[in-house]
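Quick one:
INPUT:
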């Protein structure tokens, strides 16, 4: 199914014309992450390759959620098309979606898509299907209004606004600030993201809700640090008996118990729970009840850790499935770059190995092509300093790496030297000693090139 179209855009800031890929069919059944991307405003946000300005592309959209039998179509009014053209567009989008669905899974709702007049209206229809009421949405919009009040004034006036809007400045408001900051950064609005983070930091220090969060975080960090330091002191001498004793010591301390589960999840295996069950069987009275409650709490905590891990793996698997099955690999990668992380690459490598072990050459070649295009997209999207370091690490020879550094380092300035040090340290910690050695050997070359480029007094 073709979910995207290729087009040419003109940047409103610099006038540069460039090719772009635009999504039109948002199928939650095939791409579970597309719902979050759409609701957070990240669909069809395109960055100009010349000046970096991010623009939103107005295009017809078809949103499909088979789990809710929800089909919504939106055709922007600004396209200024005739009613007959509008019907043709809706028919084409619906037909493309329906053709991608196996006949046995097609339902009557696919023949009658709901129509949204505006993008906010489309969002409301999706939220309605999720059971998020109009009252809940109004409360959220009121918080957005308050956020805008802060951002419209100089930070020196924030205390006054905070006093006037105190009833809105709860934990939910602070969480909303972080979410919107993430979205702003992801959609190419770093200044907005910086402003929201600055506001969040101010409210953390100057509101009861913020102070409560700071207190909780500090207490949790302290307890995690204490547990980690204790485990580090014991080191390889930790026995199963010592570990069980530590768990029993923390039985009534949920925060430290949670920290222990997070740090030592593999140790809470079948043998551990078998031993704990044996202790329960031999205990009596209050002690038996205490151990039973401990076992239930540990099962909940380990289950939560496993679910988080599974969610991360599932997200990576879903992302890989969408990209691999796309007719246009590059078009599938670009809007999902924020989902491509170490877990995604590990899942991709595991699938390549599995295909090779099974002798499935066709699948292996397709997956290796995906890996090649993903790495190329990551290099292309990386900031100039990281892009230079990637080029240096992949250079075929030391001479080529020295040339790249000598040419690329001067405009990046002294900060580039600190970045080289930090990345070399990360590489060493990760066991990639040869790459770390290359960076460290080239640091003097970079320093000389940066120094030579400084304007003389």
């Amino acid at each position: 199914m073709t979910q995207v179209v290729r087009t040419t855009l003109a940047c409103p800031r610099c006038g540069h014309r460039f090719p772009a890929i635009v999504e039109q069919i948002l199928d939650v059944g095939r791409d579970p992450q597309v719902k979050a991307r759409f609701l957070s405003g990240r669909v069809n946000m395109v960055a100009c390759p010349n000046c970096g300005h991010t623009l939103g592309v107005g295009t017809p959209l078809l949103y499909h959620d088979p789990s809710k039998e929800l089909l919504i179509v939106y055709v922007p009014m600004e396209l200024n098309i005739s009613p007959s053209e509008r019907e043709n567009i809706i028919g084409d989008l619906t037909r493309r979606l329906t053709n991608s669905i196996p006949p046995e899974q097609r339902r009557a709702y696919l023949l009658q898509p709901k129509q949204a007049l505006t993008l906010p209206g489309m969002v409301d229809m999706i939220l309605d299907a999720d059971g998020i009421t109009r009252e809940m949405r109004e409360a959220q919009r009121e918080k957005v209004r308050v956020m805008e009040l802060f951002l419209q004034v100089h930070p020196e006036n924030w205390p006054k606004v905070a006093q006037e809007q105190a009833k809105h400045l709860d934990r939910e408001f602070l969480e909303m600030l972080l979410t919107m900051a993430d979205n702003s950064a992801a959609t190419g609005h770093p200044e907005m993201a910086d402003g929201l983070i600055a506001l969040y930091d101010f409210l953390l220090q100057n509101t009861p809700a913020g102070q409560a969060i700071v207190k909780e975080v500090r207490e949790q960090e302290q307890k995690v640090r204490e547990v980690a330091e204790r485990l580090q002191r014991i080191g390889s001498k930790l026995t199963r008996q010592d570990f069980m004793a530590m768990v029993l010591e923390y039985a009534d301390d949920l925060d430290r118990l949670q920290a222990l589960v997070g740090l030592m999840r593999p140790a809470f295996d079948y043998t551990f729970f078998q031993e704990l069950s044996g202790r329960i069987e031999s205990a009596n009275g209050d002690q038996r009840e205490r151990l039973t409650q401990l076992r239930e709490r540990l099962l909940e905590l380990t289950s939560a850790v496993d679910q988080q891990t599974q969610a991360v793996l599932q997200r990576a698997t879903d992302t890989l499935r969408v990209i691999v099955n796309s007719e246009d690999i590059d078009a599938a990668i670009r809007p999902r770059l924020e989902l491509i992380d170490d877990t995604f690459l590990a899942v991709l490598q595991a699938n390549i190995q599995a295909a090779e072990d099974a002798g499935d050459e066709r699948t292996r070649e397709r997956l290796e092509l995906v890996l090649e295009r993903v790495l190329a997209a990551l290099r292309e999207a990386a900031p100039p300093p990281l892009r230079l370091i990637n080029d240096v690490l992949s250079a075929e020879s030391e001479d080529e790496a020295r040339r790249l550094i000598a040419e690329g380092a001067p405009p990046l300035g002294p900060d580039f030297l600190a970045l080289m040090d930090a990345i070399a340290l990360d590489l060493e910690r990760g066991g990639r000693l040869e790459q770390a050695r290359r960076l460290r050997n080239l640091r003097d070359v970079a320093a000389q090139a940066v120094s030579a480029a400084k304007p003389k007094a």
